[in-house]
Every structure is written in structure tokens, then in C-alpha cells.
Amino acid sequence: MARPKSIYRVRVGFIDTDAAQIVHHATYLRYFEAARIEFLREQGFDYAVWSKSDSLGLPVAETTVKYRLPARFDEVLEIQTWVGVAKRAYLVFQSELRRDNVLLTEGTAKCACTTLNGELRRVPVQLLKACLGDEYDVSLL
Questions:
Q1: How far is CA 105 from the centre of its chain?
Q2: Which residues, given as ranges, of the chain have pLDDT below 50?
Q3: Residue 103 is part of a domain; what is its CATH number?
Q4: For 23, which DSSP code?
């Protein structure tokens, strides 16, 4: 079976664009972040509750963005998100942003699992299970 995926929809606001009403390149990172949190929520994992109760977080350690075509003011975009790589101490979220099923932008975010003080920790089992679904592998422990 395939890993869980989710689709997050966003309408491009004027504030998200440059003078030509094209989405500013940095805005995609914000869109991808919102899509990651919604992905986790759809898998039954509440990031805010987990972070507070376990004093852990998933800070972004590295990102990539590949811009193919521009998005523009007032368009509705769909961002499909999934975990492409899961290791003991980090997850790599992958995202594809589309308009009318046309791929506009691709991105990744490597997120380390850390304490709120920045100390590296293992990704908790419940988070791995949420992100990997049926592909969850105990060897990652």
C-alpha cells in the first residue's frame, strides 16, 4: 500500500504576491508548512498537542523548492503532501503544488525531531505510524 497523502487547498491572497500579482517565491515555503501541518492532522496526529505534551518539535533543517510555473493572485492551489523519507531522527516531507492539476512547484522539507531546546531525538513511534501508514517499519526504531 502507498504512504498516506493529503491535499491542502489555498487561495492566493494579494499579500502573497509581488507587484505583477505572481506568488512571491518565499510564499511557497509558508504554503508547504501549512500543508505539512494539515497532512499530520489528517493522519490523526495533532502537532500542537504533541509538541506541548512531549516537549518536542519538528524544526525544518533543510528545504528545496523547484519552481516550474508561476501561481497568481486569486487562484486556488492544491498542495499534495506526504513523507518521502523517514529515519530515526528526521522526516522528509514532499509537496507538489498544482493549479487545475498542472504541476507548478515542488518542494521538500527535512524536519529533525528535537526537544524544544534543540536536542536531537528519535521520531516517536506514533508519528512514524501516522506518516507511514501501512509502510511503517519497526527497523526505524
A1: 13
A2: none
A3: 3.10.129.10
A4: B
pLDDT reported for residue 139:
67
* Angle made by CA atoms 26, 59, 130, in degrees to the nearest 5: 105
**Has residue 141 been placed in a domain?**
no
pLDDT in tens, 80-111: 999 999 999 999 999 999 999 999 999 999 99
Strand ranges (DSSP E) for the chain?
6-11, 56-57, 60-67, 76-86, 90-99, 102-112, 114-115
Question: Which domain range does residue 28 map to?
Answer: 6-136
Please tell me the total count of domains within the chain: 1
DSSP 43: T
Instruction: Tell me which residues are annotated as active site.
Output: 18
Q: Tell me how far CA of residue 19 lies from CA of 1, 6, 104, 126, 139, in angstroms.
A: 45, 31, 19, 44, 50
Go through the chain and tell me how many residues it has: 141
- Domain contains 107: yes
37 exposure class (CB count in 10 Å sphere: 0-12, 13-18, 19+): middle
Cβ within 8 Å of residue 11, ≥6 positions away = 74, 75, 76, 77
d(CA 9, CA 141): 33
